Amino acid sequence: MSTPLDQLLRVFPIRQLFRGTALRACLWSVVGTAFLAGLVLVSFLVVALLDTRGEADVSPDDAVQFGEVVGSEAYSMSDPELIPSGSLPQNNLGLFAVAWELRDRPLGSFIGSLARRFEFLQQTDSALFYLISIGLLFGLIQNAVLAHVRTLAGRASLHSGSLLRESLHRHALRTGTSDLANSHTASLIQLFTEEVERVRLAIEEWIVAVFRYPLQLALLVLFLLTINWRVAFECAVPLIGCWYLIQRERRSAIRDERLIADRARQELELLAEAIGCSRLIRGYRMEEFERVRFNRHLDRYHQQLAEEEQRESKTHWLARMLSLAAFAIVLFLVGAHMLQPRLAPEHVSLAEGILLLSCFAFGYHPAQSLAAIRHQRIEANRSAERIYHYLNSIPEVGQAVGAKFLEPVQKLIEFENVHWKTGSRKILNGLNLKLPAGGSSAIIAFDSVEADTLVALLPRFIEPHDGKIKFDGEDTAWVTLESLRAEVVVVSGDEAVFTGTVFENLSGGESQYPLSAVTEAAKKAHAHSFIQKLPQGYETVLGQHGEQLSSTQSFRLALARAVLRDPAVMVIHEPTTAMSEDEKSLLDDACQRVSQGRTMVYRPSRLSALKRADRIILLNRGRVEVVGTHEVLVKSSDLYRHWEYLHFNEFRREIGPPD
User: Fold this and answer.
1) How many whole angstroms separate alpha carbon 43 and alpha carbon 50?
2) What sign does the CA torsion over 35, 38, 42, 43 have?
3) Which of 93, 275, 571, 605 could be joined to 490 by an S-S link, Cβ 3.0–4.6 Å?
4) What angle do CA 388, 19, 14 make, to 5 degrees?
5) CA torsion angle for 248, 250, 252, 255 (degrees, to 10)?
6) Residues 264, 332: one domain?
């Protein structure tokens, strides 16, 4: 079984670090680290130069060694006893003074060679000016490089996030048709937005950090070892110990805070429970009981919040105390070595001491960032696991290998012993039904889910768990989805508009539909009149960020979209919202116009639609109860009269939600 980490590596495999944009980001991270090394070195040289003031205390006995530092043979070839006291240069030595101060350190020889190579470093004033200028330049370049790294990492992570979103979008189109109640829409939107973004940000931070922070830590360790490895080791031990204790405390605090937050959430849910029970509480005069219960849970909720704040405060206090203790220990150790005599083997100069402290301070951010990235990757791993769990789900409806092209139905649509269930609940239970082609049928049921399920089977939005749906004897399970859905179009006002122009909403972006054909379809559906009244007509943007339409306008727009495609079978979900008499007339006339020459299947919300249908199919307990016209069923079926009474009796509004 794959672990969550494996799922994240599926999104962004390690090999992707060495390709394209991610590779450029990593290489620029190395460049940025190199400039950071130069900045640290230049900063050290500036402090050391200010500490020595460009002066060196050189005795005649040190002439030979001083000559080696400054690169002058005059001193190395002379007899120290012949050199008069005070004849050696003592000031305005630039970096030579620093090299002389650190002559017993590996860094001293490097600084000496640097000063010998560049003349502007051999005088104090010019050396200070150029060092500060170079440091400023290095800092600017390093910041620019890091900004470029962040941009490149963002592009690489954006590409991975886009691929995930494309996969989610494709899979949603494959599986979303079977979600009749749209029960998974909210969770899918969360996957598409929050979970993918969490994965993307984790990838971006990982690309930024994978080379940058380890290289920075390695660079700082190298500086520490170069200055004085013994002192560095003495200081590192308490620092690492305090760091370990702080991280362990934070991990423990995160676990405790999650448990406390879960308990607080439970108490909050209990507090909100009474909102839905007001009738019960008032009806049984349980106000006092509810008041006591509410106050008890409210006190527990406050207690959980106080406990969470106390735990967080304790963690912050302990982290601050340990940090202060570590800083004090390191400062004491460095200060003790700085106070030792100059010739002592473990003596540390002021510049070296400042560099030691700076290296430890600069190492905090990379170490802390790596720890934070680890936690971020764990959360991103969980998000990736949830995303791939959805992507690995098998669509209920698929196209069979070798599927045939479906011709427009000419004779009969037949449901043969069809079963369908959701969970353990049976919706259709051995349903048998024949719908003659070319007529109009109204599907009704005491349980609306049964009727919705039946019409959803026609375009194979869902698949029967047993049984067959046949068009002129051809099992729809063995025809191509493209040809089936070209011949069976569903019209509904609930989801008829997406963000885009009116023309795009009608044509679906297909170039085969010219404006003249779109306009003609809109006229037939009685949508042309209100479209012309929109600000830009057919170029008016609709949707969440554009013009809003009423439910009946949306329905007529959907009807025009269906007419444009000229299907053989049209499934009509009538609007369930209240309509004016004019809107009813327009809807009736539009349905009458579009029904010519095709098979119409209605999910009616009005009695007039039932009376207009050639046949009414009443479903009950997953099977066909009765079939007939309105006039016949009213006289012959007690069950139909009961259904009609429940939905269209004189004490109810004619327009309301169907069954």
Assistant:
1) 11
2) positive
3) 571
4) 45
5) -140
6) yes
Q: What CATH number is associated with residue 452?
A: 3.40.50.300
Residue closest to 588 by CA, chosen among 602, 570, 608: 608
Domain stops at, among 361, 391, 421: 391
Say whether both 637 and 502 belong to one domain: yes
The C-alpha atoms of residue 165 and residue 482 are separated, in whole angstroms, by 24
Which residues touch 656 (CB under 8 Å, ≥6 apart)? 576, 605, 647
How many other CB atoms are there within 10 angstroms of residue 556's CB atom? 28
Model confidence pLDDT, tens digit, residues 45-96: 898 888 888 887 777 777 777 777 777 654 544 454 544 444 556 678 888 8
CA distances from 566 to 99, 218, 440, 484, 589 (A): 90, 70, 16, 13, 18
Residues 338 and 461 reside in one and the same domain? no
pLDDT in tens, 182-222: 667 778 888 999 999 999 999 999 999 888 899 988 888 88
Give a yes or no: residue 330 inside a domain: yes
Let me know whether 224 and 101 are in one domain: no
Cβ neighbors of 504 (< 8 A, separation 6 or more) are none
Lookup: tokens for 388: 């791939």
Q: Which amino acid is at 187?
A: S
- Residue 406 maps to a domain: no
Taking CA atoms, 465 is separated from 95, 234, 453, 515, 565, in Å, by 86, 73, 12, 42, 30
Tell me which of 107, 130, 153 is where a domain ends.
130
Within 527-622, residue ranges assigned H as helices are 528-532, 551-565, 581-594, 607-612
Distance CA 14, CA 118 (A): 44
Q: Which domain holds residue 171?
A: 4-19+131-391
Residues 470, 459: Cα–Cα separation, whole Å: 11
Is residue 456 a part of any domain in this protein? yes
Burial of 237 (0-12, 13-18, 19+ CB in 10 A): exposed
Residue 306: both structure tokens together: 């106080």
Domain total in the chain: 3
- The strand pairing partners of 419, in sequence order, are 429, 466
Q: Are 563 and 439 in a shared domain?
A: yes
Distance (Å, whole) CA 248 – CA 32: 31
What is the rounded average pLDDT of the residues 283-288?
78
d(CA 298, CA 284) in angstroms, rounded, equals 23
Retrieve residue 87's tokens: 């004849």
Residues 527 and 383 occupy one common structural domain: no
| 505 and 595 co-located in one domain | yes
Question: Residue 403 domain-assigned?
Answer: no
Whether residues 11 and 40 fall in one domain: no
pLDDT at 612: 87
Geometric angle at alpha carbon 367, from 365 and 369, rounded to 5°? 65
Beta bridge pairs of residue 420: 428
Residue with tokens 């004033």: 125
